[in-house]
Model the fold of this input.
Amino acid sequence: MRRPTLTTLRARSPWRVLGGFGQAINGACRYVAPASVEELSATLARAHEEGLTVAFRGAGRSYGDASINTRGLVVDTQRLTRVHRWDPGSGEFECEPGVTVEGLWRRTIEDGYWPAVVPGTMRPTMGGCLAMNIHGKNNFRAGPFGEHVQEIDLVTPSGEVLTCNREQNPDVFHAAIGGLGMLGAITRVKLKLKKIESGLLRVDARVGRNLDEIFECFEELIPKSDYVVGWIDCFARNGSLGRGQLHAAHYLHGDEDPDPQGSLHVERQGLPSTILGFPRGKLWIPMQFFVNDLGVAMVNRAKYWSSYFGDGASYLQSHVGFAFLLDYVPDWRLAYGDGGFVQYQVFIPKETAKATLKTLLDLGQRRGFPSYLGVLKRHRPDAFLLSHAVDGWSLAMDFKVTRGNREALWKHFAEMTAIVLDAGGRFYFAKDGVLTSADVARAYGQERIDRFAAIKQRLDPDGTLNSDLSRRALGL
Ligand SMILES: Cc1cc2nc3c(=O)[nH]c(=O)nc-3n(C[C@H](O)[C@H](O)[C@H](O)COP(=O)(O)OP(=O)(O)OC[C@H]3O[C@@H](n4cnc5c(N)ncnc54)[C@H](O)[C@@H]3O)c2cc1C
Done:
């Protein structure tokens, strides 16, 4: 190990306190933001030489500790935004890892292409989407992000550049996508985008009076929809437990959109600058007064009844408006206050999903921890080694963290985790801040974890790549 001098990376990298998106988990890390892929590769090699551990960071949109490396180095990839190639003939897009989902759709929509899979926000980078193998509201149909990736380049701590696709290094391809940045830096990605004929989607809204109705309605919508997502009122009790609203969306074809060139225009995809006359950027300020049990219960009740009376509504909405609902209110997370919040997303096989979700909703209410948000999706399995998707359902839940409730809330997570594991479920690392490595081994199977560890041993034998998440949840 080199002694720290002014020329060492250790001495040159300032300390920063970095947090997850939920702001409930933070760590003091050394920080660098290379300006080129060459600089990133040199930084990684230098860190390896100096015995510094490295975690990569995209836009920091993972809720927990995925891109935090307490006392180690965090390498921010957001400056790596070169687009190598965009071919509107084939829909192939090749770029550096710091290009964001927003940068991608802005570049391609006027040519009639949209990313095949997007998360609920357009801020994440390609590197972050790959390392978590993100899913969208169309997971049941389109699979995860990785299924639309043709090729990646991976730089290992020894400086080797591995080109990985389904023929070349297929084991690394299927492990690095969804591999939490633990096998190398993804420095190039080649994607295939989805051809669209209009900048609009047809959206149908449906209401369910309890979880049974929500599941029934979801099942009915899936075969005839391109996207389906459910909002669940986690405060509703008894016969209304799990009530909520579903939105199903469909691509438009042929002359369903009379002005496709107009609707595909970037300007027509923008989010409104005001909501109910209030500037979007300041909306989190009044929201603070509602982010408590009483306030959320009231808002949920109002939302449920307005959706009840709007049941069956059908309207046109832009791709951006439908996909990135959570970007409507910038900085909404600040409304949770100083303690932040934890998002906890469970994936349960279809056979046990409904009963398990009812148990979790009921338990949350009994323990005094009803989730402030509930988002329901349908998933299907995929071929990636650390895939979080199962043939079943996921529910994402948000829990406010305060100094006073932290200990009890973490006990509640442990109790919920045991229920999910008994039901054969999994979790999602992008939304995790609480699982132990024993939980993860049970959820993913020790055999998968061992296969992942063997690939890591081959590519990163000295364990240079590490993060708070990988230490806690994978025991690396
Ligand atoms: C409001 C909101 C809504 C969301 N909705 C969804 C959703 O619907 N579906 C979904 O799946 N996710 C969703 N997410 C989660 C988000 O998509 C993921 O956490 C994503 O990974 C964030 O990307 P990022 O660029 O911010 O990466 P970060 O969060 O900074 O990092 C994520 C991981 O990527 C690794 N990484 C980053 N760059 C590289 C690289 N170049 N090479 C190797 N590893 C790298 C990091 O080490 C880390 O492990 C949502 C998040 C928010 C805040």
In short: The chain has two domains: 83-195, 200-439. Residues 21, 55-62, 66-67, 77, 97, 119-121, 124-125, 127-129, 131-132, 134-136, 180-181, 185-186, 326, 430, 467 surround flavin-adenine dinucleotide (CB under 6 Å).
